[in-house]
Amino acid sequence: MNMTAAMPRAEGESAAPATIRPANAKTLRAGFIPLVDASVLIAAAEFGFVRKEGLTLDLVRDVSWANVRDRLAFRQFDIAHMLSPMPVASMLGLGSNPSPTIAPYSLGRGGNAITLSARLFRRMRETAALGEEAGALDHAQALALVLADMRKAGEAKPTLGVTYPFSSHNYEFRYWLAAGGIDPDRDVKLVVVPPPLTSDALAAGAIDGFCVGAPWNMVASERGVGRIVAAKQDIWPSAPEKVIGMRPDWAEAHPETVARLIVALDAAARWCDRTDNRDRLAEALADPRHIGAPVDIIRRVLAGDFSLDATGNRRVIRNYFRFHDDHAGYPRPSQALWIYSQMIRWGQTSYSAEGARAAASAYRPDLYRAALGETAAPGDGDLRIEGSASEDRFMDGHVFDPRRLEEYLTHFPAAQKTPHSATDDA
Fold it and tell me: Could you tell me which residues are beta bridge partners of residue 28?
């Protein structure tokens, strides 16, 4: 569908550009999943940023990440809103339909959270005497105590939902569980659930918890069926979330279009980060064509103002979403290599120098710099040490040096697991 024209800019307002469509504008078909982290892509279309660059976005709402992957591979999409690990997996040849995919632009950071069923959380609170001030690690350790009791009683292990095997949600959920002393492959059952279905699945008792992007965690908490126990910022604040994915052959055949797209996305990301644009962005996202969730929930999610449950407990997370600030759009290869480390840690692949090169090649900062200029790139390089800054720690205190990937993996016993074939049909 082609997006409607944006409202004209008010005098003095630093908002959206004019939206008159240039003659012979090139139309790009773009797949997306209904999540708040598609904000930059949706804003670029809805508020005229792509039109300013002589482009038109035909946004296609899809139901699952596997669909998005396949439709990009089969040339039904030109570009796609994708999970940050999906291009990495594709360049490693992982998954049921690994088609080469690159990411020249990141759609920002933040947006994920972990929600457990209200029933399971009550049991955690009783077992571990959790107070309202308990943090993400406290919650993981409390869950470990409950799981130990469940094993002793012969109860079935809980079923927890992630959105895709090669996803930030899978790796962040596993990271949180492992930090609390839980083995994600033995102590719980992980299954794939499409993002819009997670709240309903929790309400129906089909799953006992999930890790997913906004707004679906707060949808579950406000329905009274779940409790938010951790956010992405608790696990690793700089973890890449979603990216723009495209086929490398398409990018090579359309270099000017790629550059214009990146310029438009970068302008839209700046706009999305402005608090005075938050109401307009929330209204656009709430549209049934996009997310179709209550506008009030989306507005509060954008502000990082969370209802943790239905009883009035709240939490405000500063910079819960960061679309442009602090180089959030830059596709950093060191982060692609961290994703590769998690694929190794959890048995989806094994380490090799060739694999490391393939993983790093999925993120294309060269295309970002070609479009926006060298001065737009961060000053700390493409292979920075991740998790070393005071405001950017991993929850377990580890630091990731992409040049010492094998050494990093020795900190985790799970890294010795035998690689297995991960299914990704959902």
Answer: 57
Distance (Å, whole) CA 312 – CA 252: 52
Helix (H, G, I), strand (E, B) or coil at 220: helix
Q: Hunting for tokens 């005229």 — which residue is that?
A: 48
Question: Which CATH number covers residue 128?
Answer: 3.40.190.10
Mean of the per-residue pLDDT values for the chain? 91
State the total domains in the chain: 1
Which of 260, 242, 240, 253 is closest to 370 using CA atoms? 260
User: What are the tens digits of pLDDT across the range 129-164?
Assistant: 999 889 999 999 999 999 999 999 999 999 999 999
Q: Which range of residues forms the domain containing residue 216?
A: 112-238+304-322
Block residue for tokens 């049991």: 123
- Render pLDDT for 182-222 as a digit per residue (tens, 0 to 9): 999 999 999 999 999 999 999 999 999 999 999 999 999 99
The stretches of 129-166 forming alpha helices (DSSP H) are: 136-152
Give dist(CA 323, CA 73) in Å, integer: 26
Q: Which of 409, 200, 342, 260 is nearest to 212 (CA)?
A: 200
Span 368-383, mean pLDDT?
95
CB 244 within 8 A of CB 104: yes
> Rg of the chain over CA atoms, in angstroms?
21
At 112 the three-state DSSP class reads: strand
DSSP string, 286-305: HSTTTT-S-HHHHHHHHTTE
Write the DSSP symbol of residue 238. T
For residues 194 and 160, give the distance between their C-alpha atoms in angstroms, rounded to a whole number: 12
- And the tokens for 120? 């399971």
Q: Is residue 230 part of a domain?
A: yes
Classify residue 311: in a domain, yes or no.
yes
* Consecutive H or E run containing 242: strand 242-246
Assigned token pair, 128: 């571990």
Q: At a CB cut-off of 8 Å and minimum separation 6, what does 372 contact?
A: 262, 263, 266
pLDDT-derived band at 390 (thresholds 50, 70, 90) equals confident
The answer to whether position 414 is within a domain reads no
Q: Which residues pair with 366 in a beta bridge?
A: none
Residue 184 falls inside a structural domain: yes
Identify residue 193 by its one-letter amino acid code: V
Q: How many residues does the chain have?
A: 426
